[in-house]
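OP here, attaching both records as promised.
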Amino acid sequence: MCGIAALFAYHSEAPGVAHGELQAINDHMVRRGPDGEGFWYGPDDRVGLAHRRLAIIDLSATGHQPMSLATQNQRYHITYNGEIYNFHALRDGMEQQGYRFVTQSDTEVLLRLYERDGADMVNRLRGMFALVIWDAQDQALFLARDPFGIKPLYYADDGRTLRAASQVKALLAGGAVERSPEPAGHVGYFLTGSVPEPYTLYKAIKALPAGHWMRIGANGDRKITRYFDPKPALAAPMGDAPPADLRQVLLDSMQAHFIADVPVGLFLSAGLDSTSLAGLAAECQGRGVQSITLGFDAFKGLAMDEVPLAEEVARLYQTDHATRRIGQNDFDAAFDDILDVMDQPSIDGVNTYFVARAAKQQGLKVALSGLGGDELFGGYDTFAQVPALVGKLSPIPAIDSLGRAFRLLSAPWLSAFTSPKAAGLFEYGSHWGGAYLLRRGLYMPWELDRVLDGDMARAGMAELQPVRRLDQLVDGVDEPRRKVGLLETTQYMANQLLRDADWAGMAHSLEIRVPLVDRLVFEQLAPGVHRAGGPSKQKMAATPKTALPASIINRPKTGFAIPVDRWLEERSGTRERGFRGWAQTVYQAANGGTAAS
């Protein structure tokens, strides 16, 4: 896992690449890669690549980046962040075709694969990645991001120079990117608690969306292509073909995600996802896999404390286990750092920050997470609540118009004694995008002028059109639970969970791998999800040979709780209202204000 950056002065009137700017961008990402840094510049200074290294595969100097293809003309040059889990198989196949390799790294495999296949290379990769490749012969820059967006990649284009990096704040640190606000990014944050792709808080900076690649030439011509879309698999009719062997699919993914030249640990909670992975990890690796559980002083002795059950699982699978408890003092001490390393504002990720810190303290560079299981197998209550709401309200004639009138009349007083969302129940609950926003939303659209300037709120809503956009996303998917799965995968998981895992892990130079967020796993299991006899959370929990304890199997799903609201109350001396209070604190810090103290 690393940090990457690139500058491409493609316009004939653009000044050459400023070495100081690229250095400043790279310096900002030092925690992403403390094991080394590297730079490469084209002979005419029209292009520059930078890299911060966290050495995971091929720890020797031969794995250093940026890397140039070891050929006579050195046509291709790369800076890359991520891991390619099938690189051994790809390398073996290319060697049989006559290709020669001089390193043991997956980076060189990427270069050779691009040499052979061009942009089509992305469809052969199993892993998480954000990469930039310079083609010196064609004078073109190629950027790509993994199918689900595990690894981030942002770019800014002023019409003369393209800038790209792993972090928004890194691009800003270079000093050449304009900082005008992007209303859609600000509105999106307050609607959902995270900034929706491709927006950021800045009009000049965009995210390369998950599952996309972009190629830009010397004259500024560009092509952006989506190479992976989870929708077709979920929109396809449910056939009668037997489902994939769930155990073998998950074992295969676990084995792939343990590929590394450093120890790989495991985040362990009391949920079905991480405990199932612990059981499978014991089969793949034997006993002694390092596992880490995060607990909170505020929950000790209560039902929501996951530590006792997680420790029971650790004993069962004989992991090398560590438990770390976090309290008010830990939060206070880390408060400024959390807001500093959070690349884009988010209402979540604090738990990941602390468990990643614990893993780092145990000497780990890599840890596996059960993230993605709920999206794949339908573990959230949204899979029941959203279809039920739409099913009840959508048949009512003119429900949208009646609902809007009800909301306008009731919102001012209804929010005084219940959730503000209640006022929009009839207006939004009759269709999929609105019902999903009701369930996942932080603030509702009619509340935005409480937290944003009115003009910004209106401009952001006009650009984002959140309900319409979500409705269009699931159009063509017939099965209700699959609709929700598509929304959770492309919205909550992509914009919130995966992004939080990246910034919170990288804050401690820890690579977080997600075996359940894997293209091959998805393609094999998607045809069977949400149909009778198909894969499910309970079936996933039955895949380890050594069965999970009944205390885990029968435990009601509670979600992973974290007492941020209590911690903020103690810090400020006033009552903050849960995630909304935290959201405003984070937003204030992201916009250069002074965080609550």
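Record two, same layout:
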Amino acid sequence: MSSVNRIVLLLIATVAFAQKPLPPPGIAIPAEERQQLEAELSRLREAMTPLKGSPHYSDVAVIERAVASALRYNEFYQLAEFGRAHDLLAYAMERAEQLSTGSAPWTRAKGLVPLGYQSKLDDSIQPYGLVVPPSYSADAPRKWRLDIWLHGRGDTLSELAFLWQRLNNMGEFTPRDTIMLHLYGRYCNASKFAGEIDLLEAVADVKRRYAIDEDRIALRGFSMGGASTWHIGAHYAGMFAVAAPGAGFAETAQYQKMTAETLKAMPLWERQLFHWYDATDYAANFYNLPLVAYSGEKDKQIQAAQIMGRALEGEGLSLAHVIGPNTEHKYEPGAKLEVAARVDALAEKGRRAVPRKLRFVTYTLRYNQMRWLKVEALESHWDRARVEAEIREPGFFTLRTENVKAFRLEFGPGEYPFDQEVKPTVTINGTPVRWPKGANTDLSWQAEFHREGIQWVAGPAKPGLAKRHGLQGPIDDAFMSRFLFVRPTGQSRDAKLGAWAAGEMERAMKRWRGIFRGEVRVKDDTQVTEADMAESHLILWGDAGSNQVIARIAEQLPVKAEAGQAAVMVYPNPLQPTRYVVLNSGFTFREDADGTNSRQVPMLPDWAIVDLSTPPDRHWPGKVVRAGFFDEEWKVKR
């Protein structure tokens, strides 16, 4: 099938969403309103200047950034938001004045508390909100249950609108003696990519501020937030005591009603990339995480729970599914009480400290851990890898593995499940392997095992270039850790490529801000340092003629483009192999995915060759003539 026909099929599959801009343009800002807000922002910035370095600076800066962004990017969506912006700036000024005297009373406040943190991804200040219970006391010798709420889709949910909500809306659930964390999730992405990292960073920030009980963290959300809960729960099942998704979607193809013909028209690598976020593929992981799903009886999004129920049945599990009778897309009051009671009971019981049995499935080393098990290497990415592991007394582990080449067993202080001196035997697929050491004196223990041919042996695999957690591709993975755009300052050897790369870089910067709500960090190629390479993935634009960093590594890259083409790829940086380089690409889903979060999935694998005779559009960076994944040693598959 021709690429033109293939694109037509994909357009048909998403026709209802294809032209929906994200974020949408805002209303006109009156000149007088703009002038007043700019003056208030200026006064706030002046008050903030001496506060830099304070551990609470971000709690002021997050409000300044929200209002400034709404002005800069035309993101006021209703007249009332002008007054709200003034109120938020006054609230931020009050915080700044308090902080200038060494006081931060909001850190001990109860009720609605909007906060901010600085993201390691791009240094942006990101918002989140807490609902702190009346029983909370910073001096109490106890740890607190934490519930994470993932919001529904809101195309106009700017940072300004979100912070206003977090000052005025208690939210869907307010369980007793529980800190509720409301995530912004970097806007409107169903907690994927940077939205996923936002969850991890925000939780870490809450733990920095409050005494959180690691074994009593609940995950919940509705609509898009329900989709977020399915995905986060499936991929991070070991992190939570309970997950409670409401409505949403759980995968892409069936939710989008893609036909067999549509799927067949896709190249294999594109279909394989559905394995990144399809929660149905990770259903086995819910063996380790209690689930309470909710749907309205008449809600079309009941499909998510139904398809997950079938996937769970394949694992011998039966989904606890609360259904609101005669209800569309909302919580039915009686069913809501039932969901709340079940979640409370499971959160009170808490996560099992050291589970005796684990069941774990993954398709990528991006997700490689289930409690005391870490998968360190796969035989083949994007094929299913599975481990069933059990602690047996006295001194035995048993594991059954599929598509796994190396793994680690890891127990923290006090967690070793045997007597301290026991040197356990680990039986892998029927073969016993002895580990020569018992626990450390703090009762922690770890052991590594890898395969040599068909034989499992104790110890780590031999060092060398290989896919591993956080360095396994595809291209989009580079935007889930700290990254730096490297701008070319020279003359491209191919004028057409130079113009294309400049356009793609501009597009990527605009898209990052619009979809993931940050400002891309940028440096000229002549200014990149060894420290930059050590701390950041480098996103390189141009070619060996225009970009000095590309020139330094070009001969070591495994994919080359011909004249009139461009190579895009992710690859371990030859100058710093613990980080990536990416050639000429931002995150790979484009504007055609903006209308529905279920289409926000990776659109390119580890590498691709783009024919520049076809201009970029809403779907592709040009005509993709070849693309694929590198093998487990970062070599081109033959």
